[in-house]
Amino acid sequence: MKKFKKQFIVLVLLLFIRLSSQQIDGPSFDDIRSQYQNLPKNDIRALPYVSDYIRKAKKAADFKALTQGYRDAVLYIPDEKMKLVYSDSMIYAAEKSRDNSLLTLAYLGKGIIYYFNYKKFEPALDQYLKAYDYSKKTEDLYLKYKVIYHLGVVKSYLGYYQDAAKHFSNCLSFFEKESQKRKHQNEIYNYKRGYYNSLHQIIICYRNLNRQHLSDSLLTLGIEKINRESEFSLERSYLLKCRGISGFKNRNYRSAVIDFETALPELEKKDFSYASVVYFYLGQCLMVTDERKGVEKLQKVDSVFRKHGFILPELRQNFEILINYYRKKADIGKELYYTNQLLKVDKALAKDFTYLSSRIHKEYDTKDLLEKKEFLKRKSTLRLYLLIVISLLAIILIMFLTWRYYRERNIRLRYERLQERLLGHSECPEIKDKAEEAKKITALSPELIRELSEKIRKFEASRGFTKTGLTQHDLASQLGTNYKYLSIYINEIKGVNFKNYLNRLRIDYITELLNNDRKYLNYTTEALAEECGVATRQSFSDLFQEINGIRPQDYIRQRKQEIRK
């Protein structure tokens, strides 16, 4: 019992010490964040708690927590200059943490501020590229593709549509695949949102690249999918806006107006830049039937520009339309006003869009000259490539024809020499007996020589050499003589060894058949080899070449040509 009391007292003391420690150290990071994390962004009520969070993180030298604290400060501070200041602090804390995921998040956050708050797209792109470098060292795939997406948004805005489309294509594949894997609702939402935003951006890229068919196909797919969702109202408005633009370009003004008017309320609340795009295209649709209503929408584009100092490049034409409209109305004041506004637009675009600045000049001569120059360069380069390719092909063809000519001529000469030999017009290198010369040196008696000569003559006359696999022992046994005597006779009287003796008989025999009997000209090489007793096709071809100086296929081809003549 006493032991139990002691344990109870110790437990109470430990609990008291822990509670006292918490009171001294203050609330935990999670406790502090729970006070404000559900508040909407730019809500200043969160700032005192964010200050406590940052103070605690600094005291603990917890750079991961400090990065989170500065990230929260960026989210809740309404002042745009202070957002940029806190984003720099976030980068500092992330660098101290040496965590690649945090560094990715920090540079991405600063880029987003430049893009969404300051509309400074070039520094935003610089930050996104730094974030991308760090993202390659992290295993957080969602963060990686979030960077790729935002980098693509800036590139698209700057006019690098081809490059941006590659970013969005990769994002589409990733977000779609992951949205089907993940089971947690928040994760599913984030991946689907990433998918629809990537789809929206790639549709814009393909439209600007004049790949309208592909753009419309993706648009149809996206709207079918998003209509089955209960969320993503802003993303649905983006797609309806794109469909309206497609309808406008195809002169389906009525359906385009419906899409624009459906998309506009959500865009006016959450994205003034794309609301301005809707005003532009909706105004042109309405002008077809009611110029006054159409002009009212076009004037709203100017209102957005005056309020935010921001405009998309494709909206430049909005001011040209208004200038022309008031010129026709002879309203010099309004024409002058919108001319001045157009100059301001050009200045703004030239300032923020290095890549696009050359494309906002509308002088026909400059554009035409550049197009002609580019066309001539492409034409000249193409001609050079074609000339090189044709020259190489011509050289190869000449070399081939030359080789073929000399090869055919050589084959023809060898064929003619062989034919002369067969017709007896030249010395025939047949195997003849050398009995008179051999009498002086041979170990065989004259009677034995005469006997063997007669037997060999009968062997040759009966075509016994056409038996495949015939050996010297086989022939000696067949002739009823001693193997040694036969060997001496062939070597000394015939002047060759047994192998060459048989080979010569076989090739001479088949050559005579080919020359005198046309049916053999249609035999395959294998059949000809079998006919004369040679074991294999290759051995036959090699022996024919060695003895006659020409391949059997070439001899047959030449012989057929001669017969046709």
TrEMBL record:
For this protein, the record's InterPro entries field holds: HTH_AraC, TPR-like_helical_dom_sf
Superkingdom classification of source: Bacteria
What UniProt keywords apply to this chain's record, in alphabetical order? Membrane, Signal, Transmembrane, Transmembrane helix
| Residues that span the membrane, as ranges | 384-406
- Keyword Membrane in record: yes
In its keyword annotation, does this UniProt entry include Transmembrane helix? yes
Residue ranges constituting the HTH araC/xylS-type domain according to the UniProt record: 454-558
Q: Signal peptide position in this chain? A: 1-23
Q: Which GO terms describe its molecular function?
A: DNA-binding transcription factor activity; sequence-specific DNA binding
Q: What is this protein called?
A: Helix-turn-helix domain-containing protein
Where does this protein come from, organism-wise?
Epilithonimonas mollis
